Amino acid sequence: MGTIKLRRGTGSPAGSLEQYEVAMDVADKTLYTSSDGTDAVIIGNDTEYFLANNTISGLTNETLIYSGRIQATRINNSANKPLTGIEITRDLGSDGAVSGYEERVATLDFSVKSDATNTNNAPQNIYAGGFMGGSGSNDASEPHWIGGFTYDETNPSDTHTIFEGNRIDLTINPRVRANDGMDIEDPDADLDDAVLNLKVDQSGYNRAQLMLEDSNGKAFSMIGEMDTGTHRDKFIVSLDPENVNSPNNVTTFGGDYGIYYLKEYNTINNPSIEMNVFGAKDAFRLRIFDDYNSGSPNPGPLGSGTFPGYGIKPMEIHTSNFQVHAKSSDTGTDRVLEVDSTEVMFEVPIKNANLSADPANPQNGWQYYNTTTHKLRLYANGAWVDLN
After folding, report:
1. Whole-number Å distance between alpha carbons of 64 and 41
2. C-alpha to C-alpha distance for 276 and 236, rounded to whole angstroms
3. Alpha-carbon separation of residue 243 from 217, 256, 257 (angstroms)
4. Which listed residue, 158, 224, 361, 371, has the most CB atoms within 10 A of its CB?
């Protein structure tokens, strides 16, 4: 078998090669070639694979059909994921971080080549982003991690991490959108370790953790607040959080309309639970409806076109003591009624119904004030009698 003896020397022959010449650095056992007489490109060395450890300026796979691809396949089983088909490696050259994530990572970048007719006005790469993988600290106190990033549109050197995670945590930085529903499951969840945990960095009644909106805008937000200063835990449903539909000629704010549920524990051994309603200038109404009942009654219990097919039903309150307080001033209330298992006590005068004649279909125990005779009337033992 014949051999070809190349030009040999020590060190890179850059600047000394003729066009198309090949030379070898005998000290490093590295093979060089030149395409134009000025460069010195490495084409091989003494490693296991040809070109394995050298930097390649471009790896191109071009085809005239969309099904063209670069493919590297290794048949193995799922238990040996490190034995991959394509592996991207970065040699750090030194130990990793002592603690926390090692910032030097291996990345897979994506770019798009624009053409001269594009808005860039010249062919150039548009950098989209890519994937990155890194190690934990070299003392194994942090797990290995993988993430995705994107570049700033106008500054490719400015990257933004859009997600990163390890075997314990996944962090997502932008908003998450699911166009066809999303299922989240955690079979080990309990009361203080929920399936979904929403958290903000600051505490306050206006720090929403959950926002719901439709095509017309943001409808309501949900807020959980632990206020240790005033000994109150709060759950707040805020309607119209952007304060778009506020009354005219008054000053209101986002959060002025909604319901606050409070755990009051200023006296730790005797906590209370409260429901406070804000923004109900006209009224706060509690309505109890049954199911649809096949569309009956119709048009509905509250007037034409209002909840057709739903009937109003009674409300039951089970408690050891029931009290009603009425407004006495802008900042205070007075108790007007108290009910327990033995008596009903009115704290204010009782006003009977004022009628000009006896009502029809009475029952024993009915009572009213007759405005014609100015008598207080009682229906007893099947007949009306005057009480004065």
Report:
1. 29
2. 9
3. 11, 8, 9
4. 224
| Residue tagged 């066809």 (tokens) | 180
Q: Rounded to an integer, what distance in angstroms lies between the CA atom of residue 266 and that of residue 232?
A: 7
The residue behind tokens 């409260």 is 274
Helix (H, G, I), strand (E, B) or coil at 294: helix
Is pLDDT at 136 greater than 80 in this prediction? no
Identity at 103, one-letter amino acid code: E
Name residues whose C-beta falls within 8 Å of residue 127's C-beta, 6 or more positions apart in sequence.
Answer: 109, 110, 111, 151, 156
Query: What six digits make up the tokens of 74?
Result: 């290794």
The residue written with tokens 């529903």 in the block is 181
Residue 164 in contact with residue 149, Cβ under 8 Å?
no
Compute how many other C-beta atoms are within 10 angstroms of the C-beta atom of residue 115.
9
pTM for this entry: 0.63
Q: What is the pLDDT of residues 47-65, one digit of tens each?
A: 543 444 444 445 555 555 5
> What confidence tier does 275 reach under pLDDT thresholds 50, 70, 90?
very high
